[in-house]
Write a structure and sequence with these properties.
Low-confidence stretches: none
Largest sheet: none
Number of domains: 1
Structural class: mainly alpha
Mean pLDDT: 95
Distance between the termini: 41 Å
Helix content: over 70%
Radius of gyration: 18 Å
Number of helices: 6
Shape: elongated
Length: about 190
């Protein structure tokens, strides 16, 4: 007698939510980085970073753990934590960094996330092309933003903003595909 267990999913696919939270928050921040949101107006991203990019994406990661999806759990929980850390950095800590240290400090912050994203891109090759495209674009975006930060170069920073917008649009598309595939037919 064989003892095979049947896994019954008790949690809907959280990936579309995680991708949507990532996409919307990335779009707004990248719009500011691209110069489309005037200086001072970029503070609009702070609430999004905590609530949608941070908490919603972190929750999606926890639900991916429940679904035994190590990649999704690692990705969504990590990027949710990225947005929460970004919120905390802007809200509490950036004022304590000496002006002379900000380019290097932010450069390493962005570089570290670029390295993480690069290694996550390798297993993403086993996923859908839109999700792989998100990881490839995000890797490039983080590295360009890191270079812009290290060099204090506004043009490179702006290029990172444009790349981030492209990344966000790709993530929205991947999210849409997940929602469309899991929406009951009437």
């Amino acid at each position: 007698m064989s003892s095979q267990s049947v896994v019954i999913q008790t949690v809907a696919d959280p990936a579309p939510l995680g991708l949507a939270g990532f996409a919307l928050t990335t779009f707004v921040l990248s719009s500011a980085n691209a110069g489309w949101i005037p200086a001072g107006g970029d503070a609009v991203v702070i609430g999004l970073a905590l609530a949608y990019g941070g908490v919603a994406q972190f929750c999606a990661g926890m639900w991916e753990f429940k679904r035994n999806n190590v990649f999704g759990a690692t990705a969504f929980t990590s990027y949710g934590a990225f947005w929460i850390s970004f919120w905390a950095l802007l809200t509490f800590y950036v004022k304590d960094i000496p002006a002379v240290a900000i380019p290097t400090a932010l450069g390493f912050y962005l570089l570290a996330w670029g390295i993480f994203t690069l290694y996550m891109t390798i297993p993403a090759m086993n996923l859908s092309r839109p999700v792989l495209a998100v990881f490839v674009l995000l890797t490039i975006t983080f590295f360009v933003l890191a270079i812009g930060a290290f060099m204090s170069n506004a043009t490179i920073h702006m290029l990172g903003g444009y790349l981030g917008v492209l990344t966000a649009l790709t993530a929205w598309y991947a999210s849409y595909l997940g929602v469309a595939a899991n929406t009951p037919k009437r």
